[in-house]
Amino acid sequence: MSSDRVFAPGERLKGRWFGRDYVIERLLGEGANGKVYLARTERGRCAVKVGFDAVDLQSEINALSTLFPPEDRSPPEPDRFGSEVGRSGFFLEADDFVLPEGDVPFYAMAYVQGLPMQVFLQRRGPDWFWPIAGQLLERLVGIHRAGYAYGDLKPDHILVTADGRAELIDFGGVTAMGKAVRQFTELYDRGFWLGLPRVADEAYDLFSFAVLCMQVTDPQREWSRVAGLPRHQGAASLRKVLERCRMDAGAKSILRAIIDGKLTSSAAAIRLWRDAVPTAPQPPDLDAEAGRYLALALGGSAAAFAAALYWTLQ
Amino acid sequence: MMKQILLITDGCSNVGMDPAAAAAHAAVEGIVVNVIGIVDHGEVGARGMREIEGIAAAGRGMSRIVPTSMLSRTMQMMTRQTVAHTVKQAVESELRQIVGERTSIGDLPPAQRAEVVRVIDRWSESADLRVALLVDTSASMRPKLPAVQDAIRDLLLSLRSREGKSEISVFHFPGGRDGSEAVLDAAWTSDLEKVSRLFYKLDMKGATPTGPALMTVVRYYVSGTLDDAARMEDRERSQPSAPDRVGARADAAAQPEREGLWDGYVV
Hints:
By secondary structure, chain A is an alpha+beta fold.
């Protein structure tokens, strides 16, 4: 009952245990332990993750049903399909697709239409960094309250909707507190950078959060090469990168505290993050602004130049 | 106690017994043998490929050919999946006795499946685990050894994060009295310091005695100490055709591959 079978658009599938019909629309992407499709049900669209392995997928389903318990789901069960994540909960149902060659396990989740975090920030600008990062912290607080760590926090696992809502979309790394982290990516892993244990705790997720915040605000985009660097470089090298990141001083001091292991609670982190709301005008990052000026001036766009000038003077 | 051997090599054996037969010895002792072939330039070759797959099949484990940059995550993925697979097999065999023939976990209704997988996860996390690393240090492997050492340390870092007691030991080959054995670099330990200085005093001879080296590690597992292992080896040499005494070989070769689990793992 494991499968790496690919479903074709238009393929009709039926859930074995709950009987719901699904029509595959297209492949959305491939997670670490399964493929994710966009599918249509009679109630609306949803995303469907088809697992490679029944046991592995069930572990993820177990975590999801704890994070999104049925009693918290409103409106009631059948109407949640096709609706937005925010008010309906992310996890919809788990079942097996009936296939001639054997059943294949899957679960259905809300379909999040959005851009990966780093793409969103590139398109919509650095003003969005603070609120999006703040939402991520809120999501982490929720997961931590339920007794889990998220595990594999990275930009690829975050989609930002057109109205600026950040959603976590892959729960394959979710691990009960105190256990060995189920899935991680070296770049965001405190074991890789600091040689610290890969045990699921709040600080593990906060460390990944700090690295991803740096990655999406670092003007020198050399992060693809980091994986080739030696392990256990220590906090100092991360602090150096943090200095050049395009974010205000308040956010920087919070991330520095996380890197140094002084801030280990997500609830405390979200409080500090809210207190550190950048005051308008924003951002006060002069270097970045100077860079933008120069680019605009050289580009010869007088109108844009005037607008940027106005904005800075405001 | 779960027992694994992880063989890291970049080519074919050329001395001594068939390494697949040695892996079959390990399987009989309840030790799973996984194999990683490291290849940075070119290919491992059809013969090398067959040998690596053959060792893993006989050792009831998995095999994978990867570049050095993928070594660390592959080691962790293999170790972890082998633990999960071992637990799953044990649970499924129990299930068969309770529920009947041909019951796999995927056949259970959702509620029971959720409960059974919760048990599997708990067991995988809390079981005691030993992994013996056996590293080919023949000439072509030399440039890769710093990366291997790094990856071993990182593996131990992950294993130390488990609830269950986890230990590794490290061997390299060729070495020993006549260059045909595995040499112990680090005895069973969970101490990161003990695995930070590996692979000194390497044998400069060119042979790759993968089979005999695997046997040294199996004996170390069984007898507990290296001295005993060495003594056992002397006894072994006086006995003819050791591989023939193993009945599990054909059985192990018939074991279906578990490639499907592979790609789905990000570490």
